[in-house]
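To: structure desk
From: M.T.
Subject: fold request, one chain
Message: Could you run this one when you get a chance? Sequence is below, nothing fancy, just the single chain.
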Amino acid sequence: MKKFLILFLVLGALNAPAASSLPSALRTDGKTVVAAFSDVEKIARSCTVQIIYGKSYKVAIGTLVNDEGLVVTKHSELDTAKAGGTLRISMPGAKRYNRGKLVAFDSATDLAFIATDLTQKPTYTWAKTDKIAPATWVVAGVAGSDTRPYVRAGITSATARAIPKTGAVIGILMGTAI
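Reply: Done. Structure tokens follow.
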């Protein structure tokens, strides 16, 4: 009986990661979740830019934040670009590059601001930060192809927690429960 119980526990433990895995369509980058955010994705995609150092070295992505061409990005991503080097900015699907110049950064918040000669106006309105509650859904651009950066959904203000190495995923269930 003891051997049977040990065998049962071992087999159950080996099967646990597969049983707790979320189906790929329901993950934050799954088809179901991406479809739920398709309208917001178009807006996020229209103001997501690629930041290129030199002729072709892609160093970061950023967000066009105003109609004067200001772009915000992660400062740590620009570490690979040498100080004073030429930055070029590429809008999704653009046939040409725009010039960019690092004008300010804050290492504590890991933000950098790049002045560009972009003339495109952002197609979104900034939210008031006091109106953004914990667990608010957000959509952000991530590196993608030259013509189409990818967009991912996420949640703000998630509390710190330990995630075991058993392949944990974050997702939402869309539709009715079975």
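Reply (cont.): The CA atoms of residues 21 and 128 lie 36 Å apart. Let me know if you need anything else for the meeting.
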